[in-house]
Amino acid sequence: MEFAIKNKAVRGERPEVFASVGKAVFKKAVERNLLKRRLRAILLPIARAKRTDITVYVKGGAEQLDFAELRTRVINSIK
Predict the structure, then answer these.
(1) d(Cα 39, Cα 17) in Å, to the nearest integer?
(2) How many CA atoms within 13 Å lie on the side-chain side of 33?
(3) How far apart are CA 52 and CA 25, in angstroms?
(4) pLDDT digits 0-9 by tens, 15-52
(5) 1 pLDDT band (50/70/90 cuts)?
(6) Which of 9, 55, 57, 66 suits 2 as a labelling partner, its CA being 20 to 30 A distant?
(7) Distance CA 24, CA 30 (A)
(8) Domain residue spans in the chain?
(9) 3-78 — its CATH code?
């Protein structure tokens, strides 16, 4: 498994997406931040539709995925 996804009830007025990417996955902060931005772009519409906060913990193996493949795997793991 490349990532773990957890849902919680909305804490504030609107849903949020939290992403955690460790140095074991990407050594450079630029690469970790890119992956976090991609995950937020994929998951924010889903969080708003479901009215839940979503937290993603990236494990490993995600470094080789392009945006389309990442989107497919994230959406499939939520359903």
Answers:
(1) 8
(2) 3
(3) 26
(4) 999 999 988 888 899 999 999 999 999 999 999 999 99
(5) very low
(6) 9
(7) 14
(8) 3-78
(9) 3.30.230.10
User: Residue-wise over 30-58: b if at least 16 C-beta within 10 A, else e?
Assistant: eebeebbebbbebbeebbeeeebbbbbeb
Dihedral of alpha carbons 73, 8, 16, 61, sign:
negative
The tokens for 3 are 């990532």
- Residue 58 half-sphere exposure toward CB, CA atoms < 13 A: 28
The type of residue at 53 is: D
The whole-angstrom separation of Cα 50 and Cα 28 is: 33
Amino acid type, 78: I
